[in-house]
Amino acid sequence: MYKSLFSTFFKIGMFTLGGGYAMIPIIEAEVVDKHKWVSREEFLDLIAIAQSCPGVFAINISIFIGYKLRKLRGALATSLGTALPSFIIILLIAMFFHRFQDNPVVASIFKGIRPAVVALIAVPTFNLAKSANISWATCWIPIGGALAIWLLGVSPILIILLAAIGGYVYGALIKPTES
User: By the 8 A CB rule, do 47 and 128 touch?
Assistant: First the structure.
């Protein structure tokens, strides 16, 4: 099982560009659809927890899944599997980057990768919105939060705290009276 956990997350770490959010569809395909290690609902909860914890998103989610399946050793296997490819790639780039950093072909490749990375981040965002039952009536909440962070410089921590308080108030006070 440890070998399977390590190799699955190594593959995820090796073939994903764009960081943790770009990994979401690949992680979901592997751990929910292929291996069935967690349910889709659990996966959505794990994403929310991983986003709210300090540290690298992909490492956080891999630790949660590894720990759920095989406790500490599972968490070590999944986190090492996730981090090792990036570490190796960054080490190799650091060793050789000075040789090709001014190469116009390399600069063009990086310019071409940027829009693809945006798409890789956009797809899981829309999938998360769908899984979280965000509708046209509630889409103002994430849009407003994103705009407050981007345009007004509001701290993301404040947005998370306000969303948590709003969710609590809605769940505890407003929703019961709607029933």
Answer: yes
Dist. CA 7–CA 24, nearest whole Å? 17
Distance between CA atoms of residues 30 and 11, nearest Å: 10
DSSP assignment of 24-39 equals: HHHHHIIIIIIS-SS-
Query: Which residues fall within 8 angstroms of residue 9, CB to CB, at 6 or more apart?
Result: 62, 66, 77, 78, 79, 81, 82
Q: What is the pLDDT of residues 151-170, one digit of tens each?
A: 999 999 999 899 889 888 88
What element of type H or E holds 119? Answer: helix 104-131
**What is the tens place of the pLDDT at every residue in 102-115?**
888 888 888 888 88
What are the φ and ψ backbone dihedral angles of 119, each rounded to 5 degrees?
-65, -40
